[in-house]
Amino acid sequence: MRPRLDWRGIALIAGSAAAAAGFAWPFFAPALPQDAQNAVPYLALALVPAIVAALLLALDRQFASAKAVALLGVLGAIGAATRVLGDTVGGIEPVFVVLILAGRALGARFGFLLGLVVMTVSAIITGGVGPWLPFQLFACAWVAAGAGLLPRIRSRIGELVMLAVYGALASWIVGALLNLWFWPFAIASGSSISYAPDASGVANLKAFALYSLATSTLTWDTVRALTTVVGIALIGRPVLAALRRAKL
Predict the structure, then answer these.
(1) For the domain that residue 160 is a member of, what is the CATH number?
(2) How much is the pTM?
């Protein structure tokens, strides 16, 4: 039986909704590209309290035991290592395999926290701390948490297929989300894929879809999707079994 949604879960959802609004600001807050570029560090800073709140809310009784903390530390280290590896080979990011399998086996709240830990540690290791980091933190936390919220499936093969499909979709969606923070000032104005502050939200959504498709969806994000699918297919079954035994 899945745990019921308590006030901590509701607060995490509310914080995630606020973060989602931060991702989507180009569609409802018109700004000139230069203004957008200047505003991004402040927008990223505004997400930090939501991240801290999510961390505190996730640290409830589920993480009161030394075993749970140790498991979080081990998986966080593994996830950070796989992300560092992915930074050296374009698009091959096995970190999604770790996040999805852990989130599925150990629950959405654990997965959310693991996503925050993995991205923070890997950013410190690689020197990748900047205005993009809060967006990456939430995106990866959502990927892991989403795996824990997927419906139960009795068939082990069916579960792996579901996780593989989820991993592929998450790879493309996260790639698009992470394009949002810099898209308004990434392309010179006047093209069919440029951000236009005076255009409607629908028009900018179409332009962004074309931009994301051309710059990452068909290349980097697709490689990430394939890596995730192959990784889940190869190690999903034994890793899920091991994590579920560790959870007991």
Answers:
(1) 1.10.1760.20
(2) 0.82
DSSP summary character for residue 187: S
Whether 149 is covered by a domain: the verdict is yes
Domain annotation covers residue 2: no
Task: Count up the domains in the chain and report the number.
Answer: 1
pLDDT at residue 138 is higher than 80: yes
Q: Where are the alpha helices (DSSP H) in the chain?
A: 7-23, 33-58, 66-88, 95-106, 108-126, 133-149, 156-180, 201-212, 220-247
Give the integer Cα–Cα distance in Å for 202 and 199.
8
154: in domain: yes
CA distance 49 to 51: 5
Q: How far apart are CA 27 and CA 195, in angstroms?
A: 9
Residue 1 placed within a domain: no
Q: Which residue has the tokens 């997400």?
A: 47
pLDDT at residue 183 greater than cutoff 90: no
